[in-house]
Amino acid sequence: MNELSRLIADIKAGKCALILGPEIFYAEDQPLHAFIKNRLLEKYPDQIAAYYERDGFFLLRNPDDKPEMQDEVQYLYRTIQPDRHLLIKLIEIPFSLILSVNPDTWLRDLSFEYGLPNRFAWFNARKQEEFLMPDVGDANSAALRERIPQYYNLCGCIDDPATLVLDYDDLFRLLEGMLGAPKLPEKMLARLKDTTSYLFLGFQFDRWHTQLLLRLLDVKNAARRFALQSPVPADEGTEAFLLNQFRIKFLGNEEKLIDKIHETFEIEGFLRPLAKLINPRRLTITDNLQKGNLAEAISRLLEVSRGTAAENHALLLSARYNNWQSEKNKGTHDSRDLFLQYNQITDGVLNLVNEL
Question: Which residue from 18, 108, 152, 207 has the least number of CB within 10 angstroms?
Fold first, then answer.
């Protein structure tokens, strides 16, 4: 069995983790992280004392300027148009777990746009947030198409600008949190221990914090580790170190790997189905789900379903949400149970939108 076949078999079994790095997406013909860096250097020349190119972090003259810069990063990410074709392929391929060192929400947003249930969370170095990982399910065609992916941002999220990593203080706080408390969620760590393949896209492995991340993710315990060669390949010494320490096999600069994986799953009928949400009212529903506004999404769903066969189902979802909100306000229920109920209601909204 060749390397691609082993990788595909691990994806089917739910034992492959896809890791997205800072060079997976581009903006204005440059890697996304370089685009963000250049924009911040242009806008805040007086607030930035230095930028350390090798590590990719700023040195700020005054820490009080950081919130303004974090807000600017949030704004930039929300105005960037990523490679939509690549994103669609990533959500269609039935990966069970996609981790990212980038703070964007594009996978989540596009999944909602196309009516795909998903789970999304991010690491917050200031507090621990446990969650329930979606079940992997069987490796048959129906289960693969219905598999709910977990998207997880390792380095914060633009939905919470305070979690963004801009300078060494942010990085050390992040690493301290991962190594001590709050740590990565236990269920996430348990899933990683069962992972047999890692696929890295868009990474520069010569950065020390990237190599530390490999250790934190228990990469050495996996049977297979693949990476596409970065546009700026590592030097021979670094590549030899990675091969010896982590046994990462570089697949050259083969840019069509995701296309090959996607094509294989398409031929076998294993891709997740995408709903064509053309009706503007339906798009409004999914837009509210992207923003975490489930109450407004249900309100819109009630309007769209009125007078249709789906009306009773929409009313039931509305009742379930009101009951969930009441239990949440009481503060007497386990947060994990509430999280599960919230996701079930969200999935119900998406599924009903697809049926309308």
Answer: 207
For the chain (length 356 residues), average pLDDT per consecutive 10? 84 93 87 92 94 88 93 94 92 95 94 90 82 81 88 94 92 84 81 88 76 74 72 60 71 73 93 76 81 89 86 91 88 75 89 81
The pLDDT, as a whole number, for residue 19 is: 92
Q: Find out whether 282 and 353 touch, Cβ atoms under 8 Å.
A: yes
Q: What is the pLDDT, as a whole number, of residue 236?
A: 63
In this structure, are 70 and 91 located in the same domain? Answer: no
| Nearest by Cα to 260 from 228, 293, 212 | 228
Residue found by looking up tokens 């996304």 in the block: 32
- The per-residue pLDDT for 231 is 54
Q: Taking the CB of residue 86, how many other CB atoms lie within 10 A of it?
A: 15
In the chain, where does DSSP find H-type helix? 3-12, 32-43, 66-79, 84-92, 106-113, 141-146, 168-179, 186-193, 208-216, 236-245, 257-268, 280-290, 294-305, 311-330, 335-355
317 and 346 part of one domain: yes
Rounded to whole angstroms, the Cα distance separating 201 from 212 reads 17
**Residues 154, 123: Cα–Cα separation, whole Å:** 5
pLDDT of residue 237: 65
Q: What is the SS3 assignment for 219?
A: helix
Supply the pTM of this predicted model: 0.85
In the chain, count H helices and then E strands.
15, 11
CATH number of the domain to which 96 belongs? 3.40.50.1220
Boundaries of domain holding 235: 3-27+83-160+171-268
How far is it, in rounded angstroms, from Cα 205 to Cα 236? 12
| Residue 301: closest CA among 352, 344, 341 | 352
User: Going by C-beta distance under 8 Å and a sequence separation of 6 or more, which residues neighbour residue 78?
Assistant: 158
User: Residue 285 corresponds to which tokens in the numbers above?
Assistant: 């529903």
pLDDT at 230: 57
Contact 349, 300 (CB under 8 A): no
Interatomic CA distance for residues 83 and 92, integer angstroms: 15
> Degrees (nearest 5) of the Cα angle 329, 331, 332?
130
Evaluate whether residue 303 is within a structural domain: yes
